[in-house]
Amino acid sequence: MSNINVFVEHYDGKLSPSCAELCTVARELGEVNAYVYGSKEQAQVFQETLAALGVQRIFCYEDYENREEDCTCDSLISHQAQFLQRIICVFSIGPVLLSATAEGNEIAGRLAVRMGSGVLTDVTGIDTEGIGEQSIFGDRIITHSAVKGLNPVYTLRPGAVSPRIAAVPGAAELCEVMFIPREHLGGHVVSFTPAPPTDRPELSQVKTVVAAGRGIGKEQHLHDLIEPLADSLGAAVGVTRDVVDLGWYPTQYQIGHTGVSISPDLYLAVGVSGANHHTSGIQSSGTIIAINNDEDAPIFQIADLGVIGDLFTIIPELTKEIQTRL
C-alpha cells in the first residue's frame, strides 16, 4: 500500500479543521502519515485525534534541549517545505496532501520544485489512480488532471469533502527526526503580529452558516440583523465578496471562489444574489435556504427552500421566533 503524506496545520495547540478532511481523502489512497511541524511534545497533543483519523505514523522534530533556539516557532514557509522534503525523501516516498490555504499552496509549490514532482492546487477530490478533480470557472467546469513524479503534490480545497472518522483507528506512532538548527535554515522571523482575534465562530468549524450579501443594505445591518440571527442558531456569519470589498466585514468570512469553501449542514443566505463566484463555495452544503426580495435572483436556482420577501421584516421575526423556542 502506498504512503500518503498529510501535512498537518496547527495553531495555538489546535489542529486545523482541514486536517480531518485531508485524512479522510488520504485513507482512500493508502497508508496515512502525518507531518507535524513542531516538537514531539507538540505532536503528542494531537496523537489521539490523528489516530482516530486513521494516521499510522506522525513525523515531528525530536525534542530539543534549548527551547529558545526552537526555529519551529519563528520559521518561514520555506523551512516547512524543507522539513517535509527531508522526511518524505528518506522515510515515506508517496503523494503529498496539504490544505489549499494560502500557506498550504505556497508550501506545495516550494515542495514540488524541491522534489521535482508535479503539483495540483485546489483539488476537490483525488481518485485511487492519483487523478485530481478541480472545479473551475465558478464550478461550471470540472477537470480531471494527473501529475507526474514519485511524490505528486496536491492541495485540497477546504470544505470540499465531509470529514469522517476512520473505521479502524491508526497506530499514530510518533517518529522523531533530527532537529535543524536555526543557523542552517537561513532567514527566520524576528517579530510577528497576529491578526486581531474575533469572537465570531470560524466558518469551517460550525454546521450552520448565515450569509449576508450586498442586499443587506449597509454595514450596521450585519450587526443588528445577521449576527443576532446567527447567534440564535449557534451559527457562523459568512459574507459575499461585495460585502468584503465594501469594507463591511473581515476578509476571513468571505465565501466563494476568492474566499473559502464550506460544507455546513444548513446554509442560510440573506440578501445574497447567488453569483457563480459565491455559490462555488457552497456546493457541498446540506440544506440551502435563501431569503431575497428578488424572485429572479440566481440563488433560488440552487436553494432547497426560497423565501421571497423583505429581509428587514423577515429576519427580526425569524430571530425572535427561534429565541422563544430555545
From TrEMBL:
FAD binds at residues 214, 240-241, 254-258, 271-278, 292. Pfam families: ETF (PF01012), ETF_alpha (PF00766). InterPro entries: DHS-like_NAD/FAD-binding_dom (IPR029035), ETF_a/b_N (IPR014730), ETF_a/FixB (IPR001308), ETF_asu_C (IPR014731), Rossmann-like_a/b/a_fold (IPR014729). Keywords: FAD, Flavoprotein. Its cofactor is FAD. It comes from the Bacteria. GO terms for molecular function: electron transfer activity; flavin adenine dinucleotide binding. Belongs to the ETF alpha-subunit/FixB family. The electron transfer flavoprotein serves as a specific electron acceptor for other dehydrogenases. It transfers the electrons to the main respiratory chain via ETF-ubiquinone oxidoreductase (ETF dehydrogenase). This is Electron transfer flavoprotein subunit alpha/FixB family protein. It comes from Corynebacterium poyangense. The lineage of its organism: Bacteria, Bacillati, Actinomycetota, Actinomycetes, Mycobacteriales.
